[in-house]
Amino acid sequence: MATDKTQPPVKTILLIGGISIAAIIGSELLFQSYFNSVYSDEEHAKIYGRPSELLIHTVARDEARLREGHPIPIDQAMETIGRGERPEVVAPRPSSDFSAMLGWLQMVHQFTPPDPSTDASPDTSATPDTTGTAPAVPVPSAPAAVVPHV
Questions:
Q1: Contact call for residues 89 and 77 (beta carbons, < 8 A)
Q2: How many angstroms separate the Cα of 36 from the Cα of each of 41, 69, 71?
Q3: Using CA atoms, how far apart are residues 94 and 103, in angstroms rounded to an integer?
Q4: Is the model's pTM score more than 0.70?
Q5: Distance, CA of 31 to CA of 33 (rounded, Å)
Q6: 3-state SS of the chain: helix, strand, coil percent to 5?
Q7: Contact at 8 Å (CB) between 104 and 98?
Q8: What is the pLDDT of residues 77-113, one digit of tens each?
Q9: Are 106 and 148 in contact (CB under 8 A)?
Q10: Measured between alpha carbons, how far is 33 from 27 in angstroms, rounded to an integer?
Q11: Dihedral sign of CA atoms 77, 81, 82, 85 in order
């Protein structure tokens, strides 16, 4: 009985295996990019291509609300602001939102918003303190917000 004593062609086997693996990975990337492209085109056509009835109704309602019910029409208000004037309707007002002040220090503290009914102007009739000690600050009796340390 005859046997073949030659060595197997390892280089050829590895070369064919490497080419096969590269072809599989390349085709996987090619198919994924193709299907992602087709999917995004279809998604854009079906979802973003035509507006829904609710969106059309909401936009129309908001535009009507902007045009009606204001003491000054939008065009006139824009012209007034462009001239540098500010009617009372669009005048800036101080914010009543103090949530940024509560979390600013990231530690346990109490903060009581200032009372808008009191005048915040400094008292100029008092004489300056020359003793070097700070005056006591009265604590209001309103409930204070407490922020825990995070």
A1: yes
A2: 9, 48, 51
A3: 19
A4: no
A5: 6
A6: 45, 5, 50
A7: no
A8: 788 888 887 777 667 778 777 776 666 655 555 667 7
A9: no
A10: 10
A11: positive
Start-to-end CA span in the chain (Å):
84
For residues 77 and 90, the answer to whether their CB atoms sit within 8 Å is yes
Residue type, 148: P
Q: How many residues does the chain have?
A: 150
Q: Which two tokens stand for residue 150?
A: 């995070």
- Rg of the chain taking only CA atoms, in angstroms: 37
Structural tokens at position 98: 């103090």
Per-residue model confidence as pLDDT tens digits over 33-78:
999 999 998 988 888 777 778 888 998 888 887 777 667 777 887 8
Handedness of CA 56, 63, 44, 54 (dihedral sign): negative
CB 145 within 8 A of CB 110: yes
- Return the SS3 of 11: helix
Q: Are 98 and 113 in contact (CB under 8 A)?
A: yes
